[in-house]
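PROTEIN DESIGN WORKSHEET
SECTION A - STRUCTURE
LENGTH: 421
TOKENS:
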């Protein structure tokens, strides 16, 4: 069993990251005192489509490895046997750029009542970047992998654990071949160390835990990672089979070698006993107004509400906004870039009356799944879905309730405007 013990070095890492990102991020409370975690410092991050590296959240458990691109290799194991240098990954295969909304599976954990352990995220652990790298399809087919049906790809990180666990995550090979890349650039720049340098797996639209940093092994096999499935010492299955599973309190999830339903929400609706966190649930966040200062209407009396919405592998179909805490709703307009696996911008011209208002947004995906209002009490479990609630779960994973992400805004008079639009 993996034990969460404090890691003194994380404090120095956090300070260095905050300093390097020039105030675009801020530390997040970590009850385990184990994780290196920083999140977007300003709500306005969520008013723009592309997240600058300086504002992109960071989350990892182990120390950042001393990666040297000239010496680093990625081993292909299981059904294939090969070793690739970073130079081969960059030069031998086509370079593709993918837009990906990365969201920590624990985003919203701090909104659970009672609190669950570990990192107490609000909504700040989500971001969209452009990741450039080699498509996994090209790499795997080059090494004879043709069929994806019933097959899994396990990525192993090269970050050194202070215990005996190995950070390994499995995704269906079908997803890996469809749109995943081994990335070596982020927003057109060399991959930063805290984001996985020299090479990281990018799984568009899926929770951040699946996007393994510092990749050193890719294993093609018939099953997800289970204990003993890797040719190395240590505990192999914790991060797949125990952590990042959605379940009620005091429950030990059963190990599965494979599952049929990988859509996280489908699993929540009964597809898997204790769901795995794979693709992201439908979600939205208002970026502006940010509530930090009074909002002044334009000459026509309106205030633009702008934000982002995403839905994992699925498309966002609709975003609604409310200026009265969810009592009444109006449709917002979706606009801007529209890429699979990345969030959409939304906006709404709000006829704002002077005074204090509670702004919230809720998104609906193409499968008619809509953000619930709140997070349930612990004992509700899956019955919560019937009551417009997201199930409280012991790990605090995959939460997407809209009320906790609302923003209180003070609206001034249009007469206070300087006349500009």
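SECTION B - SEQUENCE
RESIDUE ASSIGNMENT:
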């Amino acid at each position: 069993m993996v034990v969460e013990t404090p890691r003194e070095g994380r404090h120095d890492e956090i300070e260095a990251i905050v300093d390097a990102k020039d105030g675009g991020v801020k530390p997040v409370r970590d009850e385990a005192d184990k994780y290196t975690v920083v999140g977007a410092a300003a709500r306005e991050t969520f008013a723009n489509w592309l997240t600058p590296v300086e504002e992109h959240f960071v989350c990892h458990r182990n120390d950042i490895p001393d990666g040297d691109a000239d010496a680093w290799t990625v081993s292909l194991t299981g059904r294939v046997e090969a070793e690739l240098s970073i130079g081969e990954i960059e030069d031998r295969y086509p370079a593709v750029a993918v837009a990906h909304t990365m969201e920590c599976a624990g985003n919203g954990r701090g909104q659970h009542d009672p609190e669950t352990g570990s990192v107490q995220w609000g909504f700040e652990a989500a971001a969209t970047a452009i990741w450039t790298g080699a498509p996994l399809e090209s790499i795997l087919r080059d090494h004879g992998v043709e069929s994806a049906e019933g097959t899994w790809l396990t990525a192993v990180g090269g970050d050194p654990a202070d215990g005996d666990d190995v950070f390994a995550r499995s995704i269906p090979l079908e997803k890996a071949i469809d749109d995943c890349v081994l990335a070596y650039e982020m927003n057109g720049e060399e991959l930063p160390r805290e984001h996985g340098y020299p090479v990281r797996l990018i799984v568009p639209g899926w929770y951040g835990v699946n996007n393994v940093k510092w990749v050193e092994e890719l294993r093609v096999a018939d099953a997800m990672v289970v204990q003993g499935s890797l040719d190395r010492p240590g505990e192999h299955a914790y991060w797949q089979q125990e952590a990042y599973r959605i379940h009620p309190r005091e429950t030990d999830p059963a190990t599965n070698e494979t599952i049929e339903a990988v859509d996280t929400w489908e699993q929540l609706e009964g597809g898997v006993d204790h769901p795995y966190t794979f693709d992201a649930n439908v979600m939205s966040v208002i970026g502006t107004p940010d509530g930090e200062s009074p909002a002044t209407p334009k000459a026509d009396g309106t205030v633009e509400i702008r934000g982002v919405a995403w839905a994992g592998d699925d498309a966002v179909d609709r975003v609604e906004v409310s200026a009265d805490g969810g009592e009444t709703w109006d449709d917002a307009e979706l606009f801007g870039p529209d890429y699979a696996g990345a969030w959409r911008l939304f906006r709404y011209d709000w006829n704002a009356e002077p005074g204090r208002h509670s702004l919230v947004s809720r998104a609906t995906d193409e499968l008619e799944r809509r953000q619930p209002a709140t997070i349930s009490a612990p004992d509700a479990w899956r019955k919560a879905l019937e009551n417009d609630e997201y199930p409280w779960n012991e790990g605090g994973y995959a939460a997407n309730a809209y009320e906790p992400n609302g923003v209180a805004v003070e609206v001034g008079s249009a007469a206070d405007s300087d006349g500009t639009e």
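SECTION C - NOTES
The chain has two domains: 9-271, 283-416.
The chain has six helices and 23 strands.
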